[in-house]
Amino acid sequence: MKKLLISIGINAIAMWAAAWILGGADMVDGIVSWLFLAVIFGVVNTIIKPIIKLFSLPFTIITLGLFTLIINAGMLGLTMWIARMFDFNTGFFKGFWSLFLAAIIISVVSALLNWILPESE
Prior knowledge:
mainly alpha
């Protein structure tokens, strides 16, 4: 349970960092909203991403793994679309390139935070 909460917190911080770098972190009100977005992002990555990765395996092999960046951008776009259904203002990631850059930023920040924070057992 503790590991799940840490993972949600890391995702929330990474999404905030991406929105801040791309200029839109002030569009989401409060930490609870960022945590809710992180939960949606975690559910999308847990349920839908493995299916998409399986079906796109030939593209991933041909591009030597770079197609995974496009999949990550798509999962972030799906997260933003689902969040809009709950009346969240998710207009800070507009267009493919914004989602693509945000996915890269989220991956880097998440990797750094996972490296810095101790792993709980």
